[in-house]
Amino acid sequence: MYQYYAVIYQLLLYLGIIALVIYLFLPLQERIEQFYRNKVVWITGASSGIGLELVKHLAVLSPTTKLVLSSRREDELEKIVEELKLDRDRCLILPLDLEYHGDLFKSKVDLVLDRFDHIDILINNAGISQRSLIKDTQYSVDQRLMSINYLGTVTLSKSVLEHFIAQKHGHFVVVSSVSGYVGTPSRSTYAASKHALHGFFDALRFEHEKDNIHVTVICPGYIRTKISENAFS
Ligand SMILES: NC(=O)c1ccc[n+]([C@@H]2O[C@H](COP(=O)([O-])OP(=O)(O)OC[C@H]3O[C@@H](n4cnc5c(N)ncnc54)[C@H](OP(=O)(O)O)[C@@H]3O)[C@@H](O)[C@H]2O)c1
């Protein structure tokens, strides 16, 4: 008799868990769809890892969202659009290299505006990591890390900021890292570049709250992507 009750109890427990998951998942999916409906979302680092997963999820969860996909490797971005069967009307492949931010990326912003008329969200995800002790790290590595992770991201964001101010809304998302809070061995300049992003975007949040411009800084822990193999040493 006791065994009989135990089986029923377990069955009810599992059914309850399944119902709870369905209950939590459905509204979330709807909320995501509502939040991104008809928005223009520009994702940097879209060719790999976290950026690619974002593209995949937005492609499915929010079919009305217009996607701007950026990274250096145009061929890789083309492949992703093909593989995901993304409607060309809802996406723009916009190759850019954050390291070369001298032209202020204004021409890139203009290309997005020509195509989609406005930008709602810029997801600053592209970045490069480091695997070298301070004593072994060349100046050129420090310079490239700061140039890509910090200056490139800031310069692109400043180019978009003008548009956000004019349209009186906008959202900057910044993919930082736990290294944005604490430096760890072999990640000195990587951590510094992420700390620098926190300082810049905290200031931007204060300066432009009045313009209805939002800033979200995300600090993931370790995620298995190509970041380690692409890291500077
Ligand atoms: N994975 C983790 O454990 C982890 C943890 C915390 C934070 N993060 C952060 O998450 C972000 C994405 O990293 P991930 O893990 O997805 O790494 P990933 O797979 O190596 O992806 C990095 C992306 O950045 C792009 N990129 C690299 N250099 C660029 C440049 N100079 N200009 C433009 N795009 C460039 C790459 O595309 P191309 O090669 O085509 O340019 C790629 O799409 C990074 O900012 C990273 O710091 C990652």
Automatic annotation (TrEMBL):
Assigned keywords, A-Z: Membrane, Oxidoreductase, Transmembrane, Transmembrane helix
One Pfam family named in its UniProt record: adh_short
MF terms in GO: oxidoreductase activity
SMART domains named in the record: PKS_KR
InterPro entries in UniProt: KR_dom, NAD(P)-bd_dom_sf, Sc_DH/Rdtase_CS, SDR_fam
The keyword Cell cycle is assigned to this record: no
TM region positions: 6-26
PROSITE patterns referenced in this protein's UniProt entry, alphabetically: ADH_SHORT (PS00061)
A GO BP annotation: lipid metabolic process
Domain Ketoreductase: from-to ranges: 39-226
Family to which the UniProt record says this protein belongs: Belongs to the short-chain dehydrogenases/reductases (SDR) family.
Main function: Putative oxidoreductase.
Designated name of the protein: Ketoreductase domain-containing protein
